[in-house]
Design the sequence.
């Protein structure tokens, strides 16, 4: 069984920063990938950024240059540093771990960008 626990969401003004964390525990195989997705009300869940176990990363065009994904393999933790936040970044952010051919999801953390 795999569990993901997210933290770091909240309310921030436009132009501000937040850092999300997601700690994974359980049966995690090497060669896994971790990612952040987000879902705004009425919208589908979209990938924001992903990072493979070797460190290669991918970003959605809408966050390139503003968000940075990183991971600590020793802690099975993935981070999302979000800078220059915009109101359109408001959403519930979910952590996803893919390991052993399975996808596991966190419970989600709310990020609200508003003045």
Sequence:
């Amino acid at each position: 069984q795999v569990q993901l626990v997210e933290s770091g969401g909240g309310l921030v003004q436009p132009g501000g920063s937040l850092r999300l964390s997601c700690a994974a525990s359980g049966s995690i195989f090497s060669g896994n990938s971790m990612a952040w997705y987000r879902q705004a009300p009425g919208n589908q869940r979209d990938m924001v950024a992903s990072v493979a176990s070797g460190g290669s990363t991918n970003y959605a065009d809408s966050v390139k240059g503003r968000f940075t994904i990183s991971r600590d393999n020793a802690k099975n933790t993935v981070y999302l540093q979000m800078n220059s936040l915009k109101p359109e970044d408001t959403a519930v952010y979910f952590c996803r771990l893919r390991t052993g051919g399975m996808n596991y999801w966190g419970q989600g953390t709310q990020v609200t960008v508003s003045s």
